[in-house]
Structure formats: C-alpha cells, structure tokens
Amino acid sequence: MSADNSTSQEIPNPAVDGSELIRFDKVVKRYGSNTVLDQLDFSVASGKHVTLIGPSGSGKTTILRLLMTLVRPDEGTIRVGGQYLTHEEKNGRLVPAGEKHVREVRKNIGMVFQQFNLFPNMKVLRNLMEAPVTVLGLSKDEAEQRARELLDLVGLGDRCDAYPTQLSGGQQQRVAIARALAMRPQVLLLDEVTSALDPELVAGVLDVLRDIAHTTDITMLCVTHEMNFARDISDQVLMFDSGHVIESGTPEKIFTEPEHERTREFLGAVL
Amino acid sequence: MMSSEFFQNWFLPGIWVTIQVTFFSAALAFVIAFPIGVLRTSRVWIVRFLAGAYFEIFRSTSSLVFMFWIAFTVPPVFHISFQPMFAGVLALGITYGAYASEIVRGALAAVPAAQREAGIALNFTPAQRLRRIELPQAWPEMLPPFNNLLIELLKGTSLVSLIAVADMTFAGDLLRLVTNESAPIYTLLLGLYFVLAFLLTRGMRLLERHAKKRVGQTPEKTSLFGGMRSRSSIDAVTGTGGAK
C-alpha cells in the first residue's frame, strides 16, 4: 500500500477514528524506579505502517512488548480492535484480564524479535506449523501448505528440513517473519529485527518486509534503526524520547524537516 | 569358597531384586518429579509452596528412616500389610522423586525466557507452551543429572537389605555369614554395583544422544568412560549423594 499523506494522524489523537486498531490510553510502565512510559497516549489506524524511532531507553520496545502482552502496563489501558487487551470489564469495572480474554485479543497480534527466537528443537517447517496446528486447530495438511507458501514468500522454500541453527541469522529472521505470518495476524510487531544481523544479511530481511508491507494490508508497528527502511515503508513515523511521543508525521516530514530540536539531534546522530 | 547352590539360590535372584527395586523406584521418582518440578514454577504461590514443601520435606529426611517408617509403622497403624519390597520402592521413589523434581525445575528454568516469549507471541496457552516448547527443550538438559541420580538410586537400593528385602547386598550378607568369607564377597558386590551403574550410564548416554539429536543439537562423541562426566550445571544443585 502506498503512503497517503492526507490520512496521517497527529499524535496523540484523542478522536476515535472508525478504523482505529490500536489505542494506548495514559499507559504507564515502570521498571523499578525507572518510568519507561509516562502517561502515553497514541493510536494506530488499521492497515498503517508506523515506525517508532528514538534513542535507546526511550520506551519504543516497551510499547511492542506491552502490545504482545509480554509485560503488563502499570497504569492505563491498551485497546486492540476496540477490545481491552490486558483488562476486561466485570460489573462495570475494569479488572486485569484473565488468560482466556488476553488470548482472545492477542490472536490478532504477531511479533518478530530481534534475536529471532525460533524453536531450536523443531525443523523450519515445524516452527511454522506448530502454532497453527496447536493454537488455531488447523489440520496438518492445511498448516503445511500455509507454511510452505510462506517459506516460498521469504525465499526459503528449500530449507524446510533444516534446523534453525543450520541457517544464517538472516535466514532465521526470515523464517521468524514467516512463522509470525502463519498465524494471520492483523498487526505485526517488528522489534529491531535487523539489529542482530551481520550487515550483509540485513538487505534480504528488509526486502521481505518491504514486500509484505506493499502487498498486504497488515498493520505494522516497527522499531528500527534502519532509517532508509523506515522511510520506505512507513505511513507515519513517531519520534520517542523519555517515554513520550515528541513528534510525529509522515516520513518525508520527519526525515527532511523535523520540527523538534531533539528529533534533529537524533537523526543527525543516526543518519 | 561360596557354594554354587547358594550362589544360584540367593545371589542371582538378589541381583534381579536389585534391578527390580531400582527400576520401580526410578519409575516412581520419575512420575513424581515432573508434576512437582513443573508445579514449583507455577505462578500461583500456594501451588508453588505446596510443591516446594514436598521437595524440602523429602529431600531433608533420611530415606533409610523413611523406609523403616513405611515398613514398620504404617502396617500396624493402618492395619494393612505389604511386601517389604513395596516399602523400599515407596521410600526410595518418594525421596528420589524430590531430588529429581529439582532437576526438572532447574532444566525448565534454564530454557531461555525468549522461548517463552515466542510462545506467547504465537498465542500458545501456558500448558501448550510447557508441552510443546519448554519441556522438549529442557528434556536433554535433564538427562545427565538424571543419570547421576539414577546411579545414586541404584546404590541406595542396598538399603532395602535392612528391611529384609533379599537384594544382592542381602544375599552377600547371608553368604558372608554362611561362608565366613568377607573379602571376596564384598569385592564381588562392589564389582556388581559398578557393572550395573556402568550399564545404566551407557543406556542414559544413548538416550541423551537421541534426545539431543531430536532437538537439533549435535551430540558429542564420548569415549567408553566419557559418559561418566557430569556436564550440566544442574548437577550442582541437586545435592545428590545425601540419601543415606
């Protein structure tokens, strides 16, 4: 899908958009005495590709981990597709959600990790089939067909019978992308997916992601230091600092005429 | 020297009894170790507490005294009777199950957190994560410490001779009384325990190689005695060897 400047939203955006898919309301996350996210509000519209940039420790990865329910917010709420993610309503009050509710909302979300996190005890094909069979209840044949299609998509159709350790980092990460897509998520979270790769392997992974960004309507939330990639695929770029969104806009605007001094400093350092 | 008739009537069956006690105690310990080890990682504190209590209690009691307790206090109090071998297997299985649960817990804790996170990201239930991701990866790590424990258990089965189970130590004692020959008999017994332990170790090494292959690791080649090495950090925390 192409970047459409007219639909980019100013962040934070309190207006409830009909197509709003993800919404953070006053989310606070602390690790000990360190407040990583401080009253964060932001939303992402369905089908958009949003890139989070900013210095280390500014809370970008925490946002993805909150969405994936790997960590829970200390305060505030997160909604995905209108449903509370880690809360549920009981007798008109919001209470921390049980496992069943969390899983129901979480099924719309997939994640690709910096360190791939493939299952080392399973061959490539089974890495892709395990969750569709166990979690979604697909038949083995259906799951295998889906897995093989996705492996072809990421250019690894011939490595079905390899164990993850027999693959290069770039190949492992492409398998990890295919594994996340096998669950047919609405939202794909990409957490510094090229940071652990040797420089010559980065391009292959980014090509696969570009392909997915341009040929599917999947919503992407991407934390990356690859500014060219961010410019290529993003509809919207959010600049984070100290747990706040300090600036947001189209990649053209953020990368060519940033308003905020802190954004200029950051881009000056990484570009 | 020992009469061949006595040897056939007591010693050979004794070896068989030792093998049986080892097998049944190990099976019981194994069956206990998994639920207790898994429950000790539970997020629910009361579950964790109860499983932890089991571990602490049976790790800290003498398996010999526990064996006496089962053999001599349970039957009169509860008006039941059972074979002495049953008491021996129960005491050893419960005690070694506690040790083995620590191996299970440790191996599960050693599975990288990233694997759990990948499981969450693919929306597995906690039980599915345990069954499909965590236990299969922890299993090869459990085998070397399980092997150590199994050998401890084999040697620990000699305790059953004290509640009149006719294992090979019991047979050796009888034979010594009959023949008044100590040195050859105890030397033979030591040799027999060694042979059994050695066979167990080779079997466990095969199992470990198979398990590693199944999880995509390349098993290392070992020399004949290479399998005796303990290669896992988990060994250190099980405190094996204090079971007497």
Describe this structure in words.
The complex is a heterodimer of chains A (271) and B (244). With 271 residues, chain A is of the alpha/beta class. Chain A has a domain of 70 residues. Helices cover 35% and strands 26% of the residues of chain A. Chain A contains nine helices and twelve strands. In chain A, the strands form three sheets. A six-stranded mixed sheet of chain A has the order 8-9-10-3-11-12, sandwiched between helices. A four-stranded antiparallel sheet of chain A has the order 2-1-4-5, covered by helices on one side. Chain A has a two-stranded antiparallel ribbon with strand order 6-7. In chain A, a hairpin with a 2-residue loop joins β11 and β12. The N terminus of chain A is likely disordered. The two termini of chain B are 31 Å apart. The longest helix of chain B is centred in the first third of the chain and has 36 residues. Chain B has nine helices and no strands. The relative contact order of chain B is 0.15. Chain B is mainly alpha-helical. Classes of the chains: A alpha/beta (271), B mainly alpha (244). At the A-B interface, α2, β8 and α3 of A face α5 and α6 of B.
Topology:
The complex is a heterodimer of chains A (271) and B (244).
Chain A: E1 20-31, E2 34-45, E3 49-53, H1 60-67, E4 75-80, E5 83-84, E6 87-90, E7 93-96, H2 99-106, E8 109-112, H3 124-134, H4 140-153, H5 169-181, E9 187-191, H6 199-215, E10 219-223, H7 227-233, E11 236-241, E12 244-249, H8 251-256, H9 261-270
Parallel strand pairs in A: 3-10, 3-11, 8-9, 9-10
Antiparallel strand pairs in A: 1-2, 1-4, 4-5, 6-7, 11-12
Chain B: H1 4-39, H2 45-59, H3 63-78, H4 84-109, H5 113-121, H6 126-156, H7 168-179, H8 183-214, H9 234-238
Helix pairs in contact in B: 1-4, 1-7, 2-4, 3-4, 4-6, 5-6, 6-8
Mean pLDDT of chain B: 87
Given the helix and strand composition of chain B, which structural class is it? mainly alpha
Largest sheet of chain B: none
Strand tally of chain B: 0
Shape of chain B: flat
Could you report the average pLDDT of chain A, rounded to the nearest whole number?
89
Give the end-to-end Cα distance of chain B, rounded to a whole number of Å.
31 Å
Using only C-alpha atoms, the radius of gyration of chain A works out to 19 Å
Number of helices of chain B: 9
User: What is the number of helical segments of chain A per DSSP (H or I, 4+ residues)?
Assistant: 9
Q: Please tell me how large the radius of gyration of chain B is.
A: 20 Å
Most extensive chain-chain interface: A-B, 30 and 20 residues
Stretches of chain B where pLDDT is under 50 for at least 5 consecutive residues are 227-244
Low-confidence stretches of chain A: 1-18
Q: How far from one another are the termini of chain A? A: 25 Å
What is the percentage of strand-forming residues of chain B? under 5%
Category from helices, strands and their pairing of chain A: alpha/beta
The ordered string of helix (H) and strand (E) elements of chain A is EEEHEEEEHEHHHEHEHEEHH
| Share of residues in helices of chain B | over 70%
Subcellular location (chain A): Cell membrane
Keywords (chain A): Amino-acid transport, ATP-binding, Cell membrane, Membrane, Nucleotide-binding, Transport
Domain ABC transporter (chain A): 22-267
Protein name (chain A): Ectoine/hydroxyectoine ABC transporter ATP-binding protein EhuA
